[in-house]
Protein: DM2 domain-containing protein
Amino acid sequence: MAALARAFRGCRFLMSPAAPAAGGTRRPVAAAAGATKAAKAGATKPKAAGGITIPLPVSDALSKFVGADQVSRSGAIKLIWAHIKAKGLQNPADKREIICDEELKTIFGNRDKVGMMEIAKLIGPHFIKK
Structure:
């Protein structure tokens, strides 16, 4: 308290407790923030699928790999990365490079190695346009 008095030079107004809000008692800031998040979460509707999350018909090669006739672009990328990580197909010397096994070669046009940034570009032709 003495340190505060020295910092504010004894100004009683600055050291006095805050007055309650004009409509009732004060709530802690954390409780007020949690209440607004809960109100927003209940009031919003789930968004419709759009963009890369829309399931689209795919080619036979990607259909065999995924196991479905339709898949979203983001879903296909997730399944490809799950396959890569499960089989340990990343090059240990360069993690950006993927060494293709037989299953991935069918999707990536018989390429032995693929860069991680090329995956989305290489699966693009497998999605059939409506």
Notes: The radius of gyration is 28 Å.
